[in-house]
């Protein structure tokens, strides 16, 4: 994967300059921050919102908490596996659990998801086994799951391109007369891509049943959001003729309520919605990145106080919705998941080296055939030299 090249260049260029604080820079460029839709404060207080409310049982609240805890556990296990040399790369979702679990749990089974490469929490909600996400990052397959089994498309590395796929798919859903919806995940950096602009235009004009879910985690590798936009991202929707809403991306209840409402709107045939989940990438862009080179520690510390998991925990405890036994059992479940993931990754067989040439063209292609033959000869040269040495 070549996703790191930009990081390496920017890091070098910035290393002598001052570190940036994304939120401060955004304020400077855009004036006061607009209000977020919020249903749970960072302190775990439940608050009301006139347009978005949600009534969840204690069981459902515990379910959301469990989803976030297990997703974070899986994510940290994957980071550790990369450090141990078991994965080539990992893109952590640390800090974005509420945005992903809230939106993921708003979906119906027949809805279709087009993710980026960081949507491990959404994958969890769709029932994609976490171990299936790791094959690509270990380099043993090109994806690892059948998108149509869980209506969860393969991870997409080409920034922003999945918004076009989602729009086309949603236009097809509308033509079929189905009442399901489509959701496209993308980042603040992706919002600068032409693909995203085109998908906004097409989805608006064709009234496609699609929700654009932008996780504004404040950074696109080492570029702060101020380099992507001069207006809050959710306001972009207005120019295309559909609604945009900014939600507290660290508030799982608000993310669930806002996404559910946008999906229902799509199902009613009222077209797309842009949801900007205002959140923070707590970790590095990927395991190949070092954010201490370009951003200030204080920024991360300020966001730590808004941790999505801690705020729901505080609410569950205060409201008496979960007891000590629940948290202990979840801890045990987390450890079991971590162990299962670790063992599954280590047991993944290496692929046949020639398999990389498969599934490129349905009917074959002269250039691929030539490359396959060259690679086969190259592989065979090792066998020959081994035989020579053995003589
Ligand atoms: C078309 C394209 N251009 C550049 C890249 C390199 N690249 C990989 S991730 C990334 C930043 C994406 O930032 P953002 O959309 O905010 O998503 P995040 O990684 O923060 O989740 C870039 C530029 C790429 N993968 N694809
Ligand atoms: Mg980003």
Automatic annotation (TrEMBL):
Keyword Cytoplasm: no
Keywords per UniProt: Oxidoreductase, Pyruvate, Thiamine pyrophosphate
Ranges where the record places region Disordered: 1-35
Keyword Hydrolase tagged: no
CDD domains in the cross-refs: TPP_E1_PDC_ADC_BCADC (cd02000)
Domain Dehydrogenase E1 component: from-to ranges: 66-347
Cofactor: thiamine diphosphate
Matching NCBIfam families: PDH_E1_alph_x (TIGR03181)
Protein name stated in the entry: Pyruvate dehydrogenase (Acetyl-transferring) E1 component subunit alpha
Species whose genome carries this gene: Streptomyces lateritius
The gene coding this protein: pdhA
